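debug: dumping io for the single-chain case to check the tokenizer round-trip. Nothing else runs in this session.
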Amino acid sequence: MTAPHLEYCFDIVCPYAYLGSTQIEALVQKHNATMSWNPVLLGGILKGIGTDPFFTTKLPAAKMRHNLTDMVRWAAHFNIPFSIHPRHPMRSVTIMRSLLVAGVEPSLIHALYRAYWVDNRALDEDEVLAEVLTEAGYEGQAIVRETQNPAIKQALIDRTQEAIDRGVFGVPTMFVGDEMVWGQDRLHFVETLLRGETL
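debug: decoded output
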């Protein structure tokens, strides 16, 4: 019997994708599944479906307060560190390109998430991003330079468009086979699919 496979579409700038990223590997291991991480550009997805990429900054005050409370509650539920970045949301295109350059390594994904959502580092600044990459064991400055390679730029554009074409409208989005599940609050549906059951 073929092991189930889970694909995790994410962007470092999304708090809910961060929250989900702290749980998904254990879930995959629990069900002896395989996993791939798919970096996409959330801003590109939102633009592609006709949504303002900065819509979260334009919500009514009550909704904005609830969103923050919701994030904090989920972090407590998962028992993980979480701190809203004072400059959130920041432009993540170079961050996501750097992951493609480095080979989409899970350890680096987690390091970047920690840098943004725990340590609140300015990852949209090339020097800071290079420092975080170097601390994670990579040639940080070389990777940041390579993010300007047209092939890397196009690769991120292509991944983002492919996600849109598959129906992705936000992150985290997870695929088990052809079944799509959106949101860290729907991991129980992901688990059902990994068990080989239908939703």
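debug: round-trip ok. The longest strand covers residues 5-10.
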